[in-house]
């Protein structure tokens, strides 16, 4: 009887360890929160403590329903620290109702139509001879390339961002966390 209990306990521990490992592999952590591939971009982003400014901006621009839509979308998601790099007062100004058009332009510049994980971006970089041109839903262009193991993104004004967390897959696309806000022309 003691051997049966020991065996049952061992199976339970292995099952828990397996389940925990599967959980860890299927859900990336962003801003201290698990990102679930069964949730949409907005439902995941609202849980990230590193993306509260981005979520507030998406709400102010009226883009919640769009980013909850079927997509698929590739979102280059600036962190709160990325927004903090902007000149003083920029974020406050952009969140004002009268700046909604400009805010929408900046936010949609961070979105590429389609689901482009790092493997797809790497293929585009290779096909482009070391640099890939990405068309944003705003109508602008971004350029992607590798610097060592870092995926880099350049905007139309010459600013660059580093992807700090890649391949956060959602049910309606993928998020790549970036460390700098990208600016359209």
Automatic annotation (TrEMBL):
Keywords: Signal. It comes from the Bacteria. GO terms for cellular component: extracellular space. Residues 38-182 form the FAS1 domain. Coiled coil: none annotated. Residues 1-24 form the signal peptide. InterPro entries: Adhesion/Biosynth-related (IPR050904), FAS1_dom_sf (IPR036378), FAS1_domain (IPR000782). PANTHER family: FI19380P1, PERIOSTIN-RELATED. This is Fasciclin. It comes from Pedobacter yulinensis. The lineage of its organism: Bacteria, Pseudomonadati, Bacteroidota, Sphingobacteriia, Sphingobacteriales.
């Amino acid at each position: 009887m003691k051997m049966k209990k020991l065996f049952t306990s061992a199976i339970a521990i292995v099952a828990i360890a397996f389940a925990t490992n599967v959980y860890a592999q299927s859900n990336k952590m962003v801003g201290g929160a698990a990102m679930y591939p069964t949730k949409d971009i907005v439902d995941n982003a609202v849980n990230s403590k590193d993306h509260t400014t981005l979520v507030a901006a998406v709400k102010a621009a009226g883009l919640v329903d769009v980013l909850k839509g079927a997509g698929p979308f590739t979102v280059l998601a600036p962190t709160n620290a990325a927004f903090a790099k902007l000149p003083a007062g920029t974020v406050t100004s952009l969140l004002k109702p009268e700046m909604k058009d400009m805010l929408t332009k900046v936010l949609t510049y961070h979105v590429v139509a389609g689901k482009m994980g790092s493997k797809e971006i790497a293929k585009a970089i290779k096909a482009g001879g070391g640099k890939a041109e990405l068309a944003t839903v705003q109508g602008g262009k971004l350029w992607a390339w590798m610097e060592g193991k870092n995926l880099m993104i350049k905007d139309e004004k010459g600013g660059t961002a580093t992807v700090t967390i890649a391949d956060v897959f959602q049910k309606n696309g993928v998020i790549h966390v970036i460390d700098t806000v990208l600016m359209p022309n």
